[in-house]
Structures are given as structure tokens and as C-alpha cells.
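Reopening this ticket.

The earlier resolution said the output was attached, but the attachment link was broken on my side. Pasting everything inline this time so it's all in one place.
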Amino acid sequence: MEKAEKPDRAQKRDTLKQNLLNLIQQNGEGVRLPSERELSERLGVARETLRRSLSELEKDGLLQRKQGAGTFVSGQALVKQFQLISFSEDMRERGLTPSSEVLSTRVIRAGAKLAQKLKMVPGANAIEIRRLRFANDEPMALETVYLVQEALPDFDPSLLATHSLYELIERNYNLHIKSATQQIHATVLNEDESDLLDVAPFSPALLVERQVTTSNGKIFEYGKSLYRADRYRFEVSVLRPGPASGAAEEGAA
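Inline output:
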């Protein structure tokens, strides 16, 4: 039996949404779209139909409608799925140009808490690096990472202004990144952090803490990254567990 054709109304709705998405992509952030009357005439749809599609796109965060001013293209949030790739690799996959500004680097003696995170002896040396991360020259994240210095002899932090940390580690030290444990917290930015990320003070942010393990089973990095909540969100796929493989027998000891 042949699959029933999609109703004309649904096809028109999908076509309208795609036309609006194309229009959004053609315009940059903050650009005002034509009026509803002009859009309805250009796209050949009723204004009420157009209004419903605009409302859906507004809920998706792609548009911002201001009463008395019009409809504007929003700064679109970047969606990050949980996979172990660097910020640079992530941005390049999205077709964006990553860059970094190294704010500070220093060698510190790990206190008890940091030593526990890095699974190292308290008092041993760790490399601390603070970077501001950009996508297409727009600040996206403020990152602080701690590396086990013993595992990275003669490491040059200045290379991180133009290179991915993970790419440098794998190429120069033959260390292969295997896995990571991450925790995400909601937080707000202080005035200094807000200034660096070019947002208003006390803006919402996502704080991501991460421990990274190499293929030899050792932790070599502990990092904390502050992501702008208006430009970044995380996507998590979850599976519902199946039924138990077997039930315990009644009366079993």
C-alpha cells in the first residue's frame, strides 16, 4: 500500500517555515525583518498563517518580536552535544572560525582540592591557563584549565592562542584523549567575567567542570569553562533503561 501524500496544508506550512529560515540565515543578528504585511505578500500566505510560523520561530529562539518595533533576528544559540572534542574542533564543525586569547599562564603548586581533581600529589606542579574563547570573533566562553606539568615537559602555553589544546597534546606528546567526566551548573557572571564575555553584569551562564583522561588511564586536565547562556546550550541524549534481565526467585536467600 502506497504511503498517503502529505496534505497540501502541511506542505505549505513546511515550505513557509523553510522560506523564513532561509530569510533568517541571509540576515545577521539584530537585523529587522520586513513587516508582516510585506512578508505575507512576498511569501504568498495569509497573515494569520505567517504570524503562527513567526511565533514558532520565536519560541525556538531564532526571532525576537518587539511590540511597535517589528521582528528581529536573534543571536542564535549554539547547541553542543556531549562528545569529547575541543572547543576549536566544535566550532570548526559548525562552520565557524575559532580563536583564543590567552589571558594568563602560570605554574602553581596544587593544593589538596586541585590535587584530588588531577589525581596527583599535593604540592606537585600544575600549569594553569586562562583563555577567552571566540567563534567568528565573538566571545563565547571563559576557560580555566589545569594540566599536570609532569606529563607535559617543555609545554608552551602561548601556542594555545592559535592551536587546539587536544591537538597539541596528541601531536607533541603522543597522549591520546580517551574520556571525560563533566558536570554542568547554572551560575551568573561577575562584573569582570561579564566584561570579558561582552554581556551585562550578572548575566546567566553555564559553568562546565571537566576531568579528562588519556588512553593510559591517567587524568591530565581539570578545567572550568563559563559559557554564555544566551549563545550556548547543551544537548543530552538519554535512553530509558530496559526491563531487568531477570527477577529474583521468590524465597531466594
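Reporter confirms the inline version is readable. Residues 1-6, 245-253 have pLDDT under 50 and may be disordered. Residues 8-26 form the longest helix (19 residues).
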